[in-house]
């Protein structure tokens, strides 16, 4: 078992060591184990946990009992039973598997998407059914509420296959030329797909309409990144109802909140390789992203690296065992790697012995190769005068520096700095002097703002330290040293106003306590002005006097509150009298109001009525308008409500309409009189 550590995180590789060929007999395997120490010390967690040539995908069933892996050559799927720590079955397939999905809790229902546009269904006994999709597929997702399979690939369409009806449904038409990955949110079942143009399209499966579009290619380009070509989407994963992580083909991971089109954080792998897999670790709020070369674990809030792993062979897929610290990878090699990281979580129940094993290893640490070597940078070599050794066998290049023998390092350091021991001795003497000074009573440096509050906190901190020493507890952090409350003792806007009404009522005994602190403040300021080095704090009164004072304070608490209230009432009366005097002295000036054009001034009651109307609720206003006739509410045939409003007309418009009405009436009367005259003339001619 190989142990590595990065950022003080122990990573145990359970599949390290040489693997024995399958064709060897058990007798020869036992003989090799006796001869070879490496084979004897290796840990085979699951028997024959490997593929003939390459493993491409690896997944765990929902019940956690079975681990499924696909690979070549020949194309096959292998199922491993974790309770038996061995292989359960193996099935060979006609073509290579692009990806697969376990639909049931165990291995009884599996769907395989194969290279030749085939979709193959397997049940518990074996092969069940096989069909084809119109274009080559690259990924698919299963929508549990509707039993639909969504296939994306080398087409602008998303093919839907309903497993309940057993037929293809109408496909979704997208704007993308090709799609690479897809995923369905486990909470609200939103379907998302990553395109070759670097965009993510989100679809609602209920209405089969697109509800969102994210341009991840544009967001992945930052000031620190160097990108060659257009980034396409290579990985996609939902976390809960609102978070989504997107991996690009240029090695960036973008974390999104679905309510925003801008990413919360952009993490670059700095290898320029496509992101193969993204996993979420909820216990420590980590994101596990992997490309073909490295697996990185980083905090999803800050982006800070937690740890990373670089396997020997290229990575094809990563699988995190649920609720544990176990990680499995599918590689470009026969053996599938298994890693155990105790910080992420406990070992699974089927291999709980790993916890005891790792605890024993941590209690008895073995010296590694790196204990005898020192890591130095190029600048350190120049300071030591050993820059000429670069390229020789004495230095081993590693990352941004070199490894060199620790004995050579100590010799070179002694020659470069012969007075190092004297500096070390002076530093030790200075530390001892500071320790003795810390035991003395020191003067307290108080801040400029809220001095009394700072003194109160120092006194309380001293009392808590004494209590914690007696109870053997850890000391809590002080507010004075906390950066979050630093402004409270620097900015004068945060100064506590002791004369305010709230302060005096909530702190009835603050006057007596503040007097004591003010005395201490005066004494401390005098001592600081004198500049004496060894001064003791001013002692207070005897303990008996202090106890008597505390009892008196408790008895006079009610009286103090009453006094404060009386004082506040008197102050309010004085303020009222002052306001009355000011009002009597001030002369009232006439106020002028401007009336809008087309309106007539009636009285101030109209404005008061308008203000009352504005204060009423919308329901009351609608009822009032319905009574006046300006609103008409009616039911429609569909079952909804229809409201029609009549707009209020201004005075000028009303007068204009009345004039027009009078004009029309006059014209009508003139027409009638003219027609009457014509009829009389016609009758007269007939009589003649």
TrEMBL record:
Q: Which residues form the Nucleolar protein 10-like N-terminal domain?
A: 1-364
The chain positions of domain Nucleolar protein 10-like second read 369-417
Q: What is its main location?
A: nucleus
Biological processes annotated in GO: maturation of SSU-rRNA from tricistronic rRNA transcript (SSU-rRNA, 5.8S rRNA, LSU-rRNA)
Q: Where is the composition biased (Basic and acidic residues)?
A: 648-663
- Bias (Acidic residues) ranges: 528-538
Biased composition (Basic residues) is annotated at 664-688
User: Which SUPFAM superfamilies would you find in this protein's record?
Assistant: WD40 repeat-like
Q: Name one GO cellular component term.
A: small-subunit processome
| UniProt subcellular location | Nucleus, Nucleolus
- Pfam families assigned to the protein according to its UniProt record, in alphabetical order: Beta-prop_NOL10_N, NOL10_2nd, NUC153
Task: Please name the InterPro entries in this protein's record.
Answer: Beta-prop_NOL10_N, NOL10/Enp2, NOL10_2nd, NUC153, WD40/YVTN_repeat-like_dom_sf, WD40_repeat_dom_sf
The UniProt family comment states: Belongs to the WD repeat NOL10/ENP2 family.
Name of the protein this chain belongs to: Nucleolar protein 10
Q: Which organism is it from?
A: Oreocharis arfaki (tit berrypecker)
Gene name of the record: Nol10
């Amino acid at each position: 078992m190989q142990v590595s550590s990065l950022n003080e995180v122990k990573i145990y590789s359970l599949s390290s060591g040489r693997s024995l060929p399958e064709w060897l007999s058990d007798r020869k395997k036992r003989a090799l184990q006796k001869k070879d120490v490496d084979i004897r010390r290796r840990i085979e967690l699951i028997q024959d946990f490997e593929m003939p040539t390459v493993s491409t995908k690896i997944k765990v069933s929902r019940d956690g009992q079975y681990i499924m892996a696909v690979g070549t050559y020949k194309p096959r799927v292998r199922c491993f039973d974790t309770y038996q720590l061995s292989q359960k079955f193996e099935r060979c397939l006609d073509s290579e598997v692009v990806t697969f999905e376990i639909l049931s809790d165990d291995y009884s229902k599996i769907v395989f998407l194969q290279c030749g546009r085939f979709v193959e269904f397997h049940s518990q006994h074996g092969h069940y059914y096989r069909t084809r999709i119109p274009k080559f597929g690259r990924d698919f997702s299963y929508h549990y509420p509707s039993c639909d399979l969504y296939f994306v690939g080398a087409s602008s369409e998303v093919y839907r296959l309903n497993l309940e009806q057993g037929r293809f449904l109408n496909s979704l038409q997208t704007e993308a030329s090709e799609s690479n990955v897809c995923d369905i949110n486990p909470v609200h079942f939103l379907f998302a797909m990553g395109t070759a143009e670097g965009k993510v399209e989100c679809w609602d499966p209920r209405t089969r309409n697109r509800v969102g579009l994210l341009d991840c290619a544009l967001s992945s380009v930052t000031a620190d990144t160097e990108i060659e070509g257009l980034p396409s989407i290579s990985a996609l994963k939902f976390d809960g109802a609102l978070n989504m992580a997107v991996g690009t083909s240029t090695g960036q991971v973008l974390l999104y909140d679905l309510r925003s089109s801008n990413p919360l954080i952009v993490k670059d792998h700095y290898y320029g390789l496509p992101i193969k897999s993204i996993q979420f670790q909820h216990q420590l709020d980590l994101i596990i992203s992997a490309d073909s070369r490295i697996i990185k674990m980083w905090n999803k809030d800050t982006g800070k690296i937690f740890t990373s792993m670089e396997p020997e062979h290229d990575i094809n897929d990563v699988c995190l065992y649920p609720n544990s610290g176990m990680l499995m990878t599918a590689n470009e090699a026969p053996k599938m790697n298994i890693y155990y990281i105790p910080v992420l979580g406990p070992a699974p129940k089927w291999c709980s012995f790993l916890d005891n094993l790792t605890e024993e290893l941590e209690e008895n640490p073995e010296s590694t190769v790196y204990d005898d070597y020192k890591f130095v940078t190029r600048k350190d070599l120049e300071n030591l005068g050993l820059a000429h050794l670069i390229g020789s066998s004495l230095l081993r290049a590693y990352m941004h520096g070199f490894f060199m023998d620790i004995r050579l390092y100590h010799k070179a350091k002694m020659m470069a700095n012969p007075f190092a021991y004297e500096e070390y001795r002076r530093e030790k003497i200075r530390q001892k002097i500071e320790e003795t000074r810390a035991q003395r009573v020191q003067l307290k440096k108080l801040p400029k703002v809220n001095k009394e509050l700072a003194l109160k906190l120092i006194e309380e901190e001293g009392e808590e330290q004494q209590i914690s020493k007696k109870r053997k507890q850890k000391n809590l952090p002080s507010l004075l040293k906390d950066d979050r409350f630093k402004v409270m003792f620097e900015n004068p806007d945060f100064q506590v106003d002791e004369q305010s009404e709230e302060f005096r009522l909530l702190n009835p005994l603050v006057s007596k306590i503040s007097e004591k602190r003010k005395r201490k403040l005066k004494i401390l300021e005098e001592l600081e002005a004198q500049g004496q080095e060894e001064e003791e704090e001013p002692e207070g009164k005897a303990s008996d006097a202090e106890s008597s004072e505390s009892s008196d304070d408790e008895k006079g608490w009610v009286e103090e509150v009453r006094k404060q209230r009386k004082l506040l009432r008197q102050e309010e009366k004085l303020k009222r009298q002052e306001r009355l005097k000011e009002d009597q002295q001030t002369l009232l000036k006439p106020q002028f109001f401007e009336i809008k054009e087309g309106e007539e001034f009636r009285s101030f009651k109209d404005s008061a009525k308008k203000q009352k109307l504005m204060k009423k609720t919308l329901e009351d206003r609608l009822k009032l308008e319905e009574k006046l006739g300006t609103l008409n509410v009616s039911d429609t045939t569909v079952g909804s409500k229809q409201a029609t409003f009549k707009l209020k007309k201004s005075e000028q418009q009303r007068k204009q309409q009345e004039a027009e009405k009078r004009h029309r009436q006059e014209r009508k009367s003139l027409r009638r009189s003219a027609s009457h005259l014509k009829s009389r003339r016609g009758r007269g001619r007939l009589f003649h």
